[in-house]
């Protein structure tokens, strides 16, 4: 069997906390601890979880936009974390990122042409007429026209801006794109267009996505596999269809059940998500989810469960096999809000076909 495109092994990223005049290190934010997964070419692995669980940190660290605390990330067998600065610059051609706000970090005085040309020039991939051709090509792939190239970011709508962000990410023909909440700032109908565009581009180019999102409807639509994170660790990982049909970790069940439901229907989520997530500076001992888990037992307060095979899933729960089955209306039949969002996505897909 071929090696996976991306293999993340025990990735850890802790941020030092400094206090006082001397800025002494007094603790650490344990943003990501020991996460491992693989990603094949052309596949989409979604990372989901509540705000602050470490999704963005995981994505940014894999691309080494920030230095890891530990672990390895092998892209086509080469450890990204072991590359010299020059090797890393060259490797960036293979791995790109799409942000929620693609222009947040860019110079507003750059035209779209300059935005897209930058990575191509940086990697010495094109100049002169070839550069212009490549810019036109990726604009067209992202559903934009050549004349958009002379415009400035502020002249675009949110959806078009994201298309420019996608065109820039595609320019160097990367094998891996980390998409960090790429549609969460957009209107629902625009979200559908962008999600479908990402799927079409994947079919066309074979690019793999790490897709970071807190939006289960979008994840269900786009992901091949899903990793659920809680306080910096993966607590469940499964094929997307499997995870939504039969979530096994109590936290995953809570996330799915927490999607809004009308009170009038009398449907009450079986595993309401109660309480706040603990601080990433001091995760609870044992299973970090135990203070919020309705099924917690003594062992959960002291022993941290490892991610282990349970059926076709990987689940970090001591009692995954003995939890009561999830009621049908919570498991298979998603909330009306979620169902509506899925319909919009499917409809946009049909229209585009
Ligand atoms: N540069 C940093 N310095 C210190 N702590 C950080 C830094 N970046 C992130 N964190 C902390 O790391 C934890 C994980 O944050 P992260 O942004 O990765 O989570 P997230 O799941 O992507 O959340 P969101 O969806 O809100 O972006 C949080 O506790 C956050 O406050």
UniProtKB/TrEMBL annotation:
GO terms for cellular component: plasma membrane. It comes from the Bacteria. Transmembrane segments: none annotated. It is found in: Cell inner membrane. Residues 17-256 form the ABC transporter domain. It is a peripheral membrane protein. Pfam families: ABC_tran (PF00005), oligo_HPY (PF08352). The keyword Repeat does not apply. Keywords: ATP-binding, Nucleotide-binding, Transport. One of its GO terms (biological process) is peptide transport. InterPro entries: AAA+_ATPase, ABC_transp_ATP-bind, ABC_transporter-like_ATP-bd, ABC_transporter-like_CS, Oligopep_ABC_C, P-loop_NTPase. GO terms for molecular function: ATP binding; ATP hydrolysis activity. Belongs to the ABC transporter superfamily. This is Peptide/nickel transport system ATP-binding protein. The lineage of its organism: Bacteria, Pseudomonadati, Pseudomonadota, Alphaproteobacteria, Rhodobacterales.
């Amino acid at each position: 069997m071929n090696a996976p495109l991306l293999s993340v092994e025990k990735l850890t990223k802790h941020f030092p906390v400094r206090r006082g005049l001397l800025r002494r290190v007094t603790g650490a934010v344990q943003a990501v601890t020991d996460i491992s997964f693989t990603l094949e070419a052309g596949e989409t692995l979604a990372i989901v979880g509540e705000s602050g669980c470490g999704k963005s940190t995981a994505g940014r660290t894999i691309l080494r936009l920030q230095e890891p605390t530990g672990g390895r990330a092998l892209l086509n067998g080469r450890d990204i974390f072991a590359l010299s600065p020059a090797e890393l610059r060259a490797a960036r051609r293979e791995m790109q990122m799409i942000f929620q706000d693609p222009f947040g970090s860019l110079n507003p005085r750059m035209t779209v042409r300059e935005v897209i040309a930058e990575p191509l020039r940086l990697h010495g991939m094109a100049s002169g007429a070839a550069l212009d051709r490549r810019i036109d090509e990726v604009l067209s792939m992202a559903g934009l026209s050549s004349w958009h190239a002379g415009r400035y970011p502020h002249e675009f709508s949110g959806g078009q801006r994201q298309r420019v962000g996608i065109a820039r990410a595609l320019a160097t023909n990367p094998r891996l794109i980390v998409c960090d909440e790429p549609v969460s700032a957009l209107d629902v109908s625009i979200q559908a267009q962008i999600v479908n565009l990402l799927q079409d581009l994947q079919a066309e180019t074979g690019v793999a996505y790490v897709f970071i999102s807190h939006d289960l409807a979008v994840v269900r639509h786009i992901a091949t596999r899903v990793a659920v994170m809680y306080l910096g660790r993966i607590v469940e990982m499964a094929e997307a269809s499997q995870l939504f049909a039969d979530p096994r970790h109590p936290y995953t069940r809570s996330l799915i059940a927490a999607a809004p439901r009308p009170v009038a229907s009398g449907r009450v989520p079986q595993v309401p998500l109660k309480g706040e997530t603990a601080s990433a500076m001091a995760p609870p001992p044992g299973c970090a989810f135990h203070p919020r888990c309705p099924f917690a037992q003594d062992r959960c307060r002291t022993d941290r469960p490892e991610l282990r095979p349970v059926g076709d899933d990987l689940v970090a729960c001591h009692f995954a096999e003995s939890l009561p089955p999830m009621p049908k209306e919570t498991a298979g039949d998603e909330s009306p809000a979620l169902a509506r969002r899925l319909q919009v996505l499917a409809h946009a897909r049909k229209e585009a076909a």
